[in-house]
């Protein structure tokens, strides 16, 4: 079998058109949603993602503001900015790019973001609501993955989803979202013994680890749907966590890197920003 490649870039564009329509409607009401991105330090990967987010905002006509702080910035300095942004009526969404330098507590900073402006869906209040299946923000990468799965028309109910990785940004929330869709979810992580015995059981395998070629053809069931979240730079080339060439021959569907989950993450961020603006300003999008 040769897998159908799920074109995340194209799907992101298609969803982007829908967001644009909502934005145009907001514009007629004099509303331009605003997104603030805080970037601490000069990590090259973070620079790229932040640039992509800004470009996407420009394309769409979302007001974007980048706040750059040096690696030496104190936690208090960051918190002062967050408080200001919480109160700024032009800003509907606040994203603090992770990872932060080690001397700054990620938890403290995330908790300081107003839950109404938490477009990443990282605040404990929003994470809780998401787990309970209440209406509200959905985390960008997990939501992007869910949209991709819906696009290919797979029934999630009763399917065995195996998630490799349990980070707060991808692994843990994507499992919860799919559990809410009635999938049977197994989590694997760095302490999992015999990883392959689990991944081979997956109808849908989601890999979010950050290790090139962690998953090869031998780890995948014939006909599985494989979602590769990993972003690794190998010999100056961007690759995922899944050995694309071999898994392609075994899976039914496979996401590429680049051009898979990444562009969907950005589109879902824009969607959350529009959602935040719509709610905050009590209008119909
Ligand atoms: N495309 C996109 O939109 C996005 C891509 N990414 C990419 O996805 C990848 C994961 O990101 P993120 O979740 O933030 O990463 P983290 O480093 O926060 O988490 C990695 C997870 O992988 C687990 N892990 C590590 N080694 C192994 C192993 N050998 N076998 C099984 N599990 C293992 C860890 O386990 P433990 O918990 O036990 O330590 C942890 O749960 C990265 O490459 C990142 O760049 C991230 C966000 C968005
Ligand atoms: N507060 C916070 N929110 C995040 O959502 C967040 C974060 N911190 N820290 C880092 C991770 C990573 N992440 C990506 C976003 C877009 C691409 C993306 O656009 N990727 C393109 C290519 C990028 C390239 O060319 O390098 C693609 O896969 O096609 C990738 C990764 C968001 N993250």
TrEMBL record:
<dbReference type="InterPro" id="IPR020630">
    <property type="entry name" value="THF_DH/CycHdrlase_cat_dom"/>
</dbReference>
<keyword id="KW-0378">Hydrolase</keyword>
<keyword id="KW-0028">Amino-acid biosynthesis</keyword>
<dbReference type="InterPro" id="IPR036291">
    <property type="entry name" value="NAD(P)-bd_dom_sf"/>
</dbReference>
<protein>
    <recommendedName>
        <fullName>Bifunctional protein FolD</fullName>
        <ecNumber>1.5.1.5</ecNumber>
        <ecNumber>3.5.4.9</ecNumber>
    </recommendedName>
</protein>
<feature type="domain" description="Tetrahydrofolate dehydrogenase/cyclohydrolase NAD(P)-binding">
    <location>
        <begin position="139"/>
        <end position="279"/>
    </location>
</feature>
<dbReference type="GO" id="GO:0009086">
    <property type="term" value="P:methionine biosynthetic process"/>
</dbReference>
<dbReference type="InterPro" id="IPR020867">
    <property type="entry name" value="THF_DH/CycHdrlase_CS"/>
</dbReference>
<keyword id="KW-0368">Histidine biosynthesis</keyword>
<dbReference type="GO" id="GO:0000105">
    <property type="term" value="P:L-histidine biosynthetic process"/>
</dbReference>
<keyword id="KW-0486">Methionine biosynthesis</keyword>
<comment type="subunit">
    <text>Homodimer.</text>
</comment>
<dbReference type="GO" id="GO:0004477">
    <property type="term" value="F:methenyltetrahydrofolate cyclohydrolase activity"/>
</dbReference>
<dbReference type="InterPro" id="IPR000672">
    <property type="entry name" value="THF_DH/CycHdrlase"/>
</dbReference>
<dbReference type="GO" id="GO:0005829">
    <property type="term" value="C:cytosol"/>
</dbReference>
<dbReference type="GO" id="GO:0004488">
    <property type="term" value="F:methylenetetrahydrofolate dehydrogenase (NADP+) activity"/>
</dbReference>
<feature type="binding site">
    <location>
        <begin position="165"/>
        <end position="167"/>
    </location>
    <ligand>
        <name>NADP(+)</name>
    </ligand>
</feature>
<dbReference type="Pfam" id="PF02882">
    <property type="entry name" value="THF_DHG_CYH_C"/>
</dbReference>
<comment type="pathway">
    <text>One-carbon metabolism; tetrahydrofolate interconversion.</text>
</comment>
<keyword id="KW-0554">One-carbon metabolism</keyword>
<keyword id="KW-0511">Multifunctional enzyme</keyword>
<dbReference type="InterPro" id="IPR046346">
    <property type="entry name" value="Aminoacid_DH-like_N_sf"/>
</dbReference>
<keyword id="KW-0560">Oxidoreductase</keyword>
<dbReference type="GO" id="GO:0006164">
    <property type="term" value="P:purine nucleotide biosynthetic process"/>
</dbReference>
<keyword id="KW-0521">NADP</keyword>
<comment type="similarity">
    <text>Belongs to the tetrahydrofolate dehydrogenase/cyclohydrolase family.</text>
</comment>
<dbReference type="InterPro" id="IPR020631">
    <property type="entry name" value="THF_DH/CycHdrlase_NAD-bd_dom"/>
</dbReference>
<feature type="domain" description="Tetrahydrofolate dehydrogenase/cyclohydrolase catalytic">
    <location>
        <begin position="6"/>
        <end position="120"/>
    </location>
</feature>
<comment type="function">
    <text>Catalyzes the oxidation of 5,10-methylenetetrahydrofolate to 5,10-methenyltetrahydrofolate and then the hydrolysis of 5,10-methenyltetrahydrofolate to 10-formyltetrahydrofolate.</text>
</comment>
<dbReference type="Pfam" id="PF00763">
    <property type="entry name" value="THF_DHG_CYH"/>
</dbReference>
<dbReference type="GO" id="GO:0035999">
    <property type="term" value="P:tetrahydrofolate interconversion"/>
</dbReference>
<keyword id="KW-0658">Purine biosynthesis</keyword>
């Amino acid at each position: 079998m040769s897998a159908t490649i799920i074109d995340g870039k194209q799907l992101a564009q298609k969803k982007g058109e829908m967001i644009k329509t909502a934005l145009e409607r907001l514009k007629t009401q004099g509303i331009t949603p605003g997104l603030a991105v805080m970037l601490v330090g000069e990590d090259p990967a973070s620079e790229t993602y932040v640039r992509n987010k800004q470009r996407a905002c420009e394309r769409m006509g979302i007001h974007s503001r980048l706040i750059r702080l040096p690696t030496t910035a104190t936690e208090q300095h960051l918190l002062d900015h967050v408080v200001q942004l919480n109160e700024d009526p032009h800003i509907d969404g606040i994203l603090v790019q992770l990872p932060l330098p080690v001397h700054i507590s990620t938890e403290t900073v995330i908790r300081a973001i107003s839950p109404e402006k938490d477009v990443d869906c990282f605040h404990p209040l929003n994470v809780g609501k998401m787990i309970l299946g209440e209406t509200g923000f959905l985390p960008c990468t997990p939501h992007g993955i869910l949209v991709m799965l819906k696009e290919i028309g797979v029934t999630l109910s009763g399917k065995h989803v195996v998630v490799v990785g349990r980070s707060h940004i991808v692994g843990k929330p994507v499992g919860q979202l799919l559990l809410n869709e009635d999938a049977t979810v197994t989590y694997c992580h760095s302490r999992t013994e015999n990883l392959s015995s689990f991944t081979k059981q997956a109808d849908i395998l989601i890999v979010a680890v950050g290790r090139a070629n962690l998953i090869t053809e031998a780890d995948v069931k014939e006909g599985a749907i494989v979602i590769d979240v990993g972003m690794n730079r190998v010999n100056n080339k961007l690759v995922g966590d899944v050995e694309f060439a071999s898994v392609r021959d075994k899976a039914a569907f496979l996401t590429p890197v680049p051009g898979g989950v990444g562009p969907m993450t950005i589109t879902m961020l824009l969607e959350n920003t529009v959602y935040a603006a719509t709610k905050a300003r009590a209008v119909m999008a």
